[in-house]
Amino acid sequence: MTEPAAESLAKEIVWPSIDDAGPAEEGGPIARSGFSYQDEVAVGFLMDMIGDPTLLKIHFETHDDLVLVRSTDTDTVRIAEYVQVKAEKPDQLWTVATLCEKKTTPASSLFERSLARDCHAEAARFRIVTLRSPASPLEPLTYAVESEFRSFTCEAMAALLAELNRRFPDVKSPKGADSSYWLTHCRWEARHDYQTVVQGNQRRLFLLASAAGCMLLIEQVMTLLEELRVVAKTASDLLWTPHRLRKIISREMIVAWWRGKLREIGEGAAQKSGGKLAEKLSAVGISDDIIELAVELRRDYGALVRSSRYMETDETRAVQSRVKSDAMSLRTRLMSGVLVANGAGFHARCVEQMDIINAERPAELPDQSAYLKGCLYDIADRCLLRFEPPVA
Questions:
Q1: Dihedral class, residue 126 (left if φ above 0, else alpha if ψ from -120 to 50, else beta)
Q2: What is the pLDDT of residues 130-151, one digit of tens each?
Q3: Does residue 242 have a cis peptide bond before it, meaning omega lies within 30 degrees of 0?
Q4: DSSP state, 143?
Q5: Which terminal residue of the chain, N or C, has fewer Cβ atoms less than 10 Å from its own Cβ?
């Protein structure tokens, strides 16, 4: 069926909005565990929302791995882009055969499942993200949708359409769209290995901050990206019922988060040393005497690491890396709900972790308790760690 015919059929039926219709199945959230390539791809789309006012919201593990909801020039039409992230087989070379390969049930091929997403009020678009570029017959799908080489007058696209029609002569979406519609509106992206995606996200965050007039430290970039990963993972892990609203992240939410982070970093840079730390501890109800001790520990730590004895030694860097890593792990657990604590409780848990690290030191080394706590408080003072729990 041609696109105009499909749109005509769509007008005859009142299709539910993708924001209201529950997913047909929720195997994704149930099967997930740990951070993943998909989460890192999702972080990239979350950053897209910061700079792109047409990207209104993102669904996580609802009707597809990800669904990007976009506005159009008309207020009455929105676009739902169904994103499938395929990274479970790192060496998989995607061909027309693997695209069309049926699994255990009818209509179970990647192509059929993708086309079947076209069952909501929004105009359907499709995206496939893989670790490797697809085989040459699928290469036209890697070009921009508006490219002249996506036209069916081009030999490669015509051959691809003919092959899909041969394999699936009667397959249509619930709204009546056929293989020509899918080919016209599908974009194939190769984002390569996990670390490549991470590095790309780091660069993009630098550029976003720079465009906003804020220069970030690499540690700040890593912390902000970790928070975005928690957002993606938490939303993905939840079930639609009863958490529908938490599985859909809006642009307003992410932009507010981003502006708040830039403001926090900017204010921290403008304050005198220890000022931001005192503010953060006070905000979670830490008593004045503990705050004074924390600021003093942070000041002693700063003076020590600037001395010739400690500056840039392997041991110093190792200890600092361990403190940052453990603080990030604890913060991630707090953000994801694995660790339940209020601000004061989380602060106490962080301090306790420094004592745990100190107890693990070789017996011949001097006590490092004050140094470790000073390092923790220095991280907080530089806007790399907050103690307040996430907003429910």
A1: beta
A2: 999 999 999 999 999 999 999 9
A3: yes
A4: S
A5: C
